[in-house]
Write a structure and sequence with these properties.
By secondary structure, the chain is α+β, with helices and mostly antiparallel strands. The chain is built from 13 helices and 5 strands. Strands 2-1-5-4-3 form a 5-stranded antiparallel β-sheet, with helices on both faces.
């Protein structure tokens, strides 16, 4: 994960031009953005200290130094938190050996959302459970149990590019969220295997992963072009699961009275999919 820290810092400083932070550009630049010595100067640390940090050879770094670097690199709140995570590998927990399970109470909540497509995501964006409309929308029950995973669906299922009209944006958001999981769980072998496989099989994934974008999945709007009912505009909310920070409930909330709400009702009528919450294997 030291390599991830260095790659992340290099990718962030490449975004910023010297003039943006009040520095004069001088000399021929072999790479875009700020030089390491410029970041060090602006952050108030020695050049040697910053180089060792970027190379993963530095001592335990303080909050004050990380905050200064985050300010210089103009990191947003999510990126700042990610920097703190990957800069301190000793404080992070290893991946659990057992498969994740969804609490019975959360499964009942899921099934109670009869009018809204919903599903539970776990580590690596594995799909752990879903309700009938969630299945009708995405088709989780048709996926092999070992492949119920959102990055797999987005990058390896050819139909995903037709299902998501804004596929490029969906793909970028998916990789950015997976990056957060990788930062929190650097010793997760299943995650490493997933990233390796996606990198081999998808040039788009490989390019996006190398960009080191990080983004939390909280709320937003996703467009879906469903083969049964047509175009849908689906606002969504992501809710943390009490007792397990590695699980979240994703609920699509079509606006009442909208064309999308009418089409979701039609989907519920047409789809003969029964609820089948299941753990990812």
């Amino acid at each position: 994960m030291d390599a991830d820290l260095g790659d992340f810092l290099r990718s962030r400083r490449a975004r910023i031009q010297p003039g943006e932070v009040g520095l004069r550009a001088y000399g021929r630049r072999r790479v875009p953005g700020l030089r390491r010595e410029e970041v060090a100067q602006l952050a108030g640390v020695s050049v040697d200290y910053y180089i060792r940090l970027e190379q993963g050879r530095g001592p335990s770094v303080s909050d004050a130094v990380l905050d200064s670097i985050a300010r210089v690199l103009r990191l947003d709140e999510t990126e700042h938190a990610y920097l703190r995570t990957v800069a301190r590998p000793r404080s992070r927990a290893s991946a659990p050996a057992s498969a994740q399970r969804v609490r019975p109470g959360l499964l009942r909540v899921l099934d109670s959302l009869a009018a809204a497509p919903a599903f539970v995501l776990g580590r690596r964006m594995d799909v752990l459970a879903w309700n009938a409309l969630g299945d009708a929308l995405v088709g989780f029950s048709r996926m092999p149990a070992a492949e119920r995973n959102m990055p797999r669906q987005v990058f390896l299922e050819p139909a995903a590019r037709e299902l998501y009209p804004d596929w490029a944006a969906v793909a970028a958001e998916t990789v950015a969220h997976l990056r957060l999981d990788a930062g929190l769980h650097p010793d997760d072998r299943r995650l490493t295997t997933l990233v390796d496989e996606l990198s081999r099989k998808s040039e788009d994934f490989r390019r996006l992963w190398a960009d080191h974008q990080v983004k939390s999945k909280t709320y937003g709007v996703k467009r879906v072009d469903h083969p049964l009912v047509g175009g849908l505009v689906l606002p969504y909310e992501t809710l943390g699961a009490a007792g397990d920070p590695d699980q979240c409930l994703v609920v699509y909330t079509p606006e009442p009275g909208s064309e999308t709400a009418e089409r979701i009702a039609l989907l519920e009528e047409r789809a003969s999919v029964s609820p089948a919450p299941a753990p990812a294997s």
